[in-house]
Amino acid sequence: MTVVPSQVIEHYKESKSLVSVTRDEIDDQTLQGFVLDYDDQWILLGYIYDFTPDGVVAIRLSDLTSMTCRATDAFQRHLLEVDGVLDKVDFALTLPEGGFLDFLRRIPNEKVVILEDEAEGNDIFIIGQNLQVLEDKFTLRTFSGAARVEDDLGEIDLDDVTSISLNTNYALAYERHFARIRMQNKAQHHKSDRAGESEA
After folding, report:
1. How far, in Å, CA of 110 to CA of 157, rounded?
2. Residue 25: inside a domain, yes or no?
3. 53 and which of 88, 90, 117, 177 could share a cystine (Cβ 3.0–4.6 Å)?
4. pLDDT at 73 over 60
């Protein structure tokens, strides 16, 4: 059970406060972001890294040990606003009635998703597309850092995942790469079809 009351989470969501989040049993680093939405198991944060909105990260409610809006957070939110980057945070993002897992099931196959198990001694990082949410695990069509698609699906038990990220700057760079590949393949296919029609 999370030590952060739902009333506190709801307050920070409604006020669009920039918050600092700790997960003492998972990571000694503090996360900073905006509460976008949550269900009974997961919370979605509009992640902020070095004063830059960096996609969405979902973490388990049960891992939370604190959620605060310090004077530093309030001031840094002000800086984000005056610098004109606050509107890059997707405050309109909400979970469907079925909750976070239903949200994941609706993600397009082309979306690059990052699954992590950050528990001590594990440090598992899986990145890929075509996310499948099964009864007790996630699967992804994974690829290497050089964007080479792996032969086998990557998979991780649902209970082992401590964070899920999408629309990060890192992930979007690979999304654009694979989108270009699809466009090139489509253009080549169209060119081949036209060549076949000419020969006919």
Report:
1. 22
2. yes
3. 88
4. yes
